Amino acid sequence: EKQPWMPTHPQKPLIIKPGVQFTTKVRLLVKLPEVDYQLKVKTIFDKDLPPGRVRRQFFILTSTHKVMDVEESSNGCLSVEFRHLVTSHLHLCVFCWFQGPLSVMEELHSLSFEAQFNILGINIDLETCSFPLVVSSSLSQLSGCWASIMWYNLLTDKPRNLGFFASPPQASWGQLSEVLSWQFSTFTGRGLNREQLCMLGEKLMGQQASHNECQVSWSKFCKENIPGKPFSFWMWLDSILELIKKHLLPIWNDNCIMGFVSKETERACLKDKEPGTFLLRFSESHLGGITFTWVKQSDSGEAPKLISVEPYTKSRLSALPFANIIRDYKVIVDGEVPENPLKFLYPDIPKDESFRRHYNSQQSKGKMFTKTPHRTGPLSAETHSE
Amino acid sequence: EKQPWMPTHPQKPLIIKPGVQFTTKVRLLVKLPEVDYQLKVKTIFDKDLPPGRVRRQFFILTSTHKVMDVEESSNGCLSVEFRHLVTSHLHLCVFCWFQGPLSVMEELHSLSFEAQFNILGINIDLETCSFPLVVSSSLSQLSGCWASIMWYNLLTDKPRNLGFFASPPQASWGQLSEVLSWQFSTFTGRGLNREQLCMLGEKLMGQQASHNECQVSWSKFCKENIPGKPFSFWMWLDSILELIKKHLLPIWNDNCIMGFVSKETERACLKDKEPGTFLLRFSESHLGGITFTWVKQSDSGEAPKLISVEPYTKSRLSALPFANIIRDYKVIVDGEVPENPLKFLYPDIPKDESFRRHYNSQQSKGKMFTKTPHRTGPLSAETHSE
DNA sequence: ACAGTTTCCCGTAAATGC
DNA sequence: TGCATTTACGGGAAACTG
Lengths: 386, 386
Prior knowledge:
- Two copies of one chain form a homodimer.
- The first copy, chain A, is α+β, with helices and mostly antiparallel strands.
- Chain A is built from nine helices and 21 strands.
- In chain A, the strands form six sheets. A five-stranded mixed sheet of chain A has the order 17-16-15-19-20.
- In chain A, strand 19 (about 345) and strand 20 form a beta hairpin.
- The longest helix of chain A has 21 residues, at about 235-255.
- The termini of chain A are far apart.
- Residues about 1-10, about 90-100 and about 360-385 of chain A have low confidence and may be disordered.
- The interface between A and B is large, with 58 and 56 residues.
- Strand 18 (about 330) of chain A pairs parallel with strand 21 (about 370) of chain B, so a sheet runs across the interface.
- Chain A binds a DNA duplex through loops.
- Chains A, B: This is Signal transducer and activator of transcription.
């Protein structure tokens, strides 16, 4: 009488934080004959992990028993929802059941559910458990925790293999790229196209590899830093996902952002374009940054130049929406009139045609222009309801 | 063997929040003869308030005993510092020792400290206690709590009169205005001048009152709303203090903000001034808002008009510093070239002379201008370290 | 329904542990 | 020492509670 089951978390499912509430639901998928007593479910954290052999031991602070009830929405099955479960630390232990120097974000836990029921004098034990959970004390680990969840669910069908990260299997780029695109389409509304995925594949595996069959290791995906950078591939990609969610959603979904473009491709794209042609791409050197590159008319028949700005990150974008930055960007060259160098979104769409509907899509907090100031009779001031 | 004593709080002294650490220090002001045992101090919350007769009962969650030590900085006196005290709720009680429908922010508490010492076979009890404390569960109550602390310390010399707010005495405007000015000079660096205090006095008590002797009630100061407004006098004033602390500090301290000006006074000031003369004043209709009013040249020999903008509040000022707003403010009148109407800070100081040193004093987060973009050889992009 | 009050929890910064 | 991990708590918003 076991059934697969999945807890929920407002932010990311299967990640819980000590001291913060989470909700979970258990359903009984078989119909029981009418019984005149109540079916009580008990919840246990890390039931099968022997205490003293786990690295961090947690327990549930809140009530762990609840009675099942007939679910209104379904066909009379029993279910129970725990709404305010909270876990807490016990302590760190010395002997760990997993091997190797795994990080906390790779440490898998689980919730178990038990119930008993008696029919015709026979006791029947019901038991089920959750998919692996990751317990994270800090939001700053969320990205790594989510990588664990993705890797696990991508590469194993077992509902519960808590030692998975002792020797995590590799993923083919074919599988992985599908999951990455799905991340984008789930969290933003637009997935990744072939060119974007191709750039990511090259970034992760190098240019020569036959991509779809190429194997990617867990370490390469999430643990090793990108050569020359202080962050891993997934840290970088997830920082961009966060940036889109918070500051670029409409223009990302409206396909204004090429985003994942190597510098070689960028050069190839813009080489023969009109001066003023520009494209938007995510920074490869900064976490969560976006920049634009435009074609500058050269002064005297030389080849045109490509110019980029320093990446905009969330702190600057929270002060001013990106569409407005593009609209109002000016270059001051000494002695000339400030001019906006951004004219055509690659390949050749007039800027305002692409971005007009996004100007002030979030209201500009720092607006400096007043269309027509309120005014009243002579020498009266503050007409705005004061 | 009692001595006055004062706890400290990072934000505002004498206000503590359940579950958040605070620090407190006790000194023994007499020198004891050498003793061969240690003097242990015990801390008790609300020692003398009978349980069951207080509205909210708190207790200290952390260790309450600590041994006194010779203080290095002073002349060998004993002292002890409790660094990580935390209180927590017990419950609400029915019978309250105070009368009337007082708010939580008027509920006074205290910390008591006890020590015993034995000399020549005689036990001597030492005891002291703190000035009244206010316990607040939320930052949104901080303003009201601070008003209680101010009123208490302004109007009583008793170190501990927990029933004070059952019938709070009135304050003379002479006393109160001094405290208000002191609030500004303590938290910002510049106090309030005579004109500013005069405006506040009229706002609080009406125009005709002989100010310094006029009595202000606690209710009028902090509990009743200003007629026609959804906030009290102190709520309004404190919101301005917060605005200055966060967004206007340099220009406030540089005396660029008249700030507290009635509309009548504003009119009298600006009436005969050059077009383009402006002044800055705090909004009387919005909490934590600042606005500017300028003299507009009338079209055809009419009397000049005074125009104001809608108040800027913290959300807009956090996107763009106020000095930059003043520098870049433009009015677009249909069919004309946008123009900045702010020329002379009242009475007649050229704008840039007053504000130049404050432009970009906080770095503008949403800057849109690049002096000279980085650039490299032909067709190379992103020179900013990528 | 409402206002006063508390809880909740993200996100950053700082502290802590290893 | 440096890195991994946890704690602290301001701030805004939701939830609570009489």
